[in-house]
Amino acid sequence: MESLNEIINKFVKEYGKAGKVLSERIIELFNQGLTIDMAVTQAIKDTDFFNIIQEQIVNSIKTGIELGIGASITYLPNEIKEPWDASAMHLSTKLHGADIEMRKRIVDALQKAFKVNESVSKIKMALYDGYHSGNAVIRKQKLPNYLSELIKLSRKLDLEDKEKIELLRLERNALRRVKDNKPDTPLRASYNQLIEALEKGQNKHIQNATWVAVQEKSRYVAERIARTESARAYHDGFMAQYADDESVVAFRWRLSSGHPIHDICDLYAGADLYGLGKGIFPKDKIPMLPAHPHCLCHLEPMYKEELEGKKEKDNVEQGGREFIATLTQKQKERLLGVYGSREVKSGVSWTARARNYSNVKLESRLSKGKLKGSILKEIYSDIQNKLDWKKEFKVKCISTVKHFSKKHDIILSDHAVIRFISQKSGKGKRHFSEKELVSIWNRQPNYKESKNRLVKYYEDIAIIYNASDKVVISIVVRKGVKKTWEVI
Ligand SMILES: [Zn+2]
Fold this sequence. Notes:
Elements: H1 2-31, H2 36-47, H3 49-69, H4 91-133, H5 136-154, H6 161-179, H7 184-242, E1 248-254, H8 264-270, E2 280-282, E3 298-303, H9 316-325, H10 329-336, H11 338-345, H12 350-353, H13 368-384, H14 391-408, E4 411-412, H15 414-421, H16 434-441, E5 447-450, E6 453-458, E7 461-466, E8 471-477, E9 486-487
Parallel strand pairs: 4-8
Antiparallel strand pairs: 1-2, 1-3, 5-6, 5-9, 6-7, 7-8
This protein binds zinc ion (ZN).
């Protein structure tokens, strides 16, 4: 799905920014003499890294819901934090686990890289001691060993070819001077150049290693959780829309555009498991989505009329087998495993062997009531935040919104509620009562204002509302249809 991908792209961008700050702080602290373990712990604390990343993950999840329901929400509903996958973990536990894993990955990657660094430092010290000790004989005997060790280590530093050649040249130079028994001053200059080149290599090595640790190894953990949880939240929002919609009876499984590997999703999209057609599932029998980590498949609602003449039946085993029969041997093995593929052939149910197949059906964690609750909360906060409204007026607006929602199941936005409260009465004014408003609301929409906005226009009163969440945006008194309205 294009837009779920966009959520992840945004997350990756934000992670990159926070990761850069963290990397710089780790290097700074390491250079101040802290151990890797301490530098990483302190840098995470100093830069507030985990909080920033958690906030970004939660943001991605929230955007996922909004994408699913086609409306904006103010808070992440608590239900979205509830366990849903095989791990049975609450979101906060998952986030905490991710923090631990990210820290470990950073420390591990750096420790590995810094081992090379330490060895280089030791030789650097030996060289330095060499020409300060005054013991020219020992110095010159040991030097070739140090240098050959250095050549080995320098291969592990992230040097460019040009720099490697330069390092090699300096090493040869130093060696030649020892061999030729040249006076100490040029030899010392040679050492100094060598050490300088090594330090440059070390700095670069530390920087690259830190980048890989933070931007690749650790990011993988955060990105996986952002991707999977926001996909799940998307489906929660999407399904909540249709939970009470009786005209939608089934869903068609759609593969995401970038779906490189042949897996369970191909079967879901290609097999006729319920006699309704390929990839079509009755509303209450949709497999768990996302079907596996990084799964970006989505659903398409199917209306009653589209399935006319078809009757739901349990065709799971048969439909699955028919689909599997169309696969190449390699594809079968990817889906069922090498042994599994043989077992299924000899009669074992494909559902017992297919990787990532789940018997758990998709159910939205968001009920309609909860959604309505979060929309109302948003409207209340919009009203509370009006700077130029008097306190008593705000109270009146909020209680009117509450009243309409409770009594008539009509959600008035901040704008619509003023239209109702602040009606001008008097000569030539068209006044509308609560009763009149409700009776218009109970009729069919007859115009479309824009892609997502519908209009119920009767008796010179137009109720304009969002098609997705049914929030009333405005109530307008007018004579005649607006030119921009489209008849429906
Ligand atoms: Zn999938």
